[in-house]
Design a protein that fits this description.
Layout lengths: L10 E7 L2 E9 L9 E5 L13 E2 L7 E7 L2 E2 L5 E4 L1 E2 L4 E5 L12 E9 L2 E7 L1
Antiparallel strand pairs: 1-11, 2-10, 3-9, 4-8, 5-6, 5-10, 7-9
Organism: Aeribacillus composti
Protein name: DUF4183 domain-containing protein
């Protein structure tokens, strides 16, 4: 018998479901934030969809998450804010109000939306 290459014949199929976990946090400003300054909102100052207090801002999953900031219902540019996950005195959202622009007025609603994806994959291998 002549030499021959021996190999396995295997097929596999993978199904991946992308499962978003969306969380929204709300805040209403209590004072005006002038242009050129920063509005920093502590985790405990936010409230949830049901009106209950927030105790911790969620971590962002590496390479599988994002956050959006809305000021008075308008989505803001990403470079204007800094998100820090964590509990009270650690977790916060900082919004830099550009110099030369308009202030953030008192009683302005701020919405923080945090989206983490939890991909779940199943692989079936048949020989």
């Amino acid at each position: 018998m002549a030499l021959q290459l021996m190999k396995l014949v295997v097929t596999a199929s993978t199904t991946t479901n992308v499962v978003p976990q969306d969380q929204r946090f709300f805040y209403v400003t209590t004072a005006e934030t002038a242009p050129g300054s920063t509005l920093t909102i502590d985790a405990a100052s936010f409230f949830q969809d049901d009106g209950s207090a927030v105790t911790e801002l969620p971590a962002l999953a590496a390479n599988n998450s994002y956050y959006n900031v809305y000021v008075n219902g308008v989505l803001q540019m990403g470079g204007l804010s800094t998100y820090t996950p964590g509990a009270t005195t650690v977790g916060s959202l900082a919004i830099n109000v550009p110099a030369g622009g308009d202030p953030i007025l008192a009683d302005t609603p701020i919405v923080l939306e945090v989206v983490n994806y939890s991909p779940q994959s199943t692989t079936v291998v048949s020989a």
